[in-house]
Amino acid sequence: MPHSAVNTSNTTKISRQVLHFFEQSLEPWGVKDIHSRFIYVNQAYIDYLEIKQDIGNLSYEAVTAFASFSESLIAHDQKVIQTGQRLEAIGTLLVGNEYRSFIFEKYPFLDKDGAVTGTVVHLKPFEHISIEYFLEKPFYGEATFTPPEAFTDREWDVLFLLFRGSDRKQIAEKLGLSENTIRNIISRIFILTRTSSRNMLLEKGLKSGWHLYVPPRFVSVGYNMLFEEDR
To answer: Shortest CA distance to 52 belongs to which of 114, 91, 5, 20?
Structure first.
């Protein structure tokens, strides 16, 4: 597999087992040093972000899609390094002429002695979800898995899909409900939020941070134990 965006002099810091996992994965993975410079990215990472140049030993600014978010991305790295915990963010990026929505998952990268020497980054793209609403509003923020307001689980599911540009029919198909049921749920959300249109609801949600909440049904966190053997 080609490593056109890899700083090969530093890949020896990554165990063979982990490197093999990255290379076989169809999802974007990378490793950054303590200064947020790229040590390694896999081919899926290169393809997803349409990276054309060698970004080895460079920071986020070297990736066009990340440039406007570089400060937030570096702050995310530093928080992971300082806490030693996995932290996630969600956002929308402009890649070429296409907007892409994703969960950005980061782990501490440990050396053989257990010291944090950087971060492992994992982009988890949202599949089959339109994000037309964000065409002029790219964003980046720390994801939350604790509901910030007292909506029901079903209402949160609908809100999540509304924020990604889905219409009633698409939401109904995604949730396995009738379009009439979705219409009723949206009407109830309007009443609860004292809004009267989709745009008003989404504008209020953006100000309140509702777009950063990811309902459990849309996320599968299954990589927590990946580096336990290296600890």
So the answer is: 5
37-56 mean pLDDT: 89
Report the alpha-carbon distance of residue 82 to residue 116 in Å, rounded. 9
Q: CA-CA distance, 163 to 172, in Å (whole number)?
A: 15
- pLDDT score for 20: 92
Rounded Cα–Cα distance for residues 50 and 202 (Å) = 30
Residue 168 tokens, joined: 């009633």
SS3 (DSSP) at 3:
coil
- Helix, strand or coil, per DSSP, at residue 18: helix
Strand stretches in the chain, DSSP E? 29-33, 38-41, 87-95, 98-110, 116-125, 140-142
Q: Are 166 and 174 in contact (CB under 8 A)?
A: yes
How confident is the model over 64-79, as pLDDT tens digits? 888 888 888 898 999 9
Give Cβ neighbours of residue 50 (< 8 Å, ≥ 6 apart): 65, 95, 96
Give residues with Cβ within 8 angstroms of 139, minimum separation 6.
91, 92, 211
As a whole number of Å, the CA-based R_g of the chain is: 19
Give 194's DSSP letter.
T
- Cβ 54 vs Cβ 4: under 8 Å: yes
CA distance 11 to 41: 10
Of 41, 111, 114, 123, give the one whose Cα is nearest residue 76: 123
Q: Please state, rounded to an integer, the average pLDDT across all residues of the chain.
A: 80
Cα dihedral 45/70/89/49 (nearest 10): -20
